[in-house]
Amino acid sequence: MQFEATVEWRRDGQDFLDQRYSRAHAWRFDGGLVAPASSSPLSVPLPMSDPAGVDPEEALVAAASSCHMLFFLSIAARRGHTVDHYRDHAVGVLGQDERGRMAMTRITLRPAIAFAGSAPPGADELAAIHHAAHAQCYIANSLKTEVVVDAGA
Question: What is 56-149's CATH topology?
Answer without folding.
Answer: GMP Synthetase; Chain A, domain 3 (3.30.300)
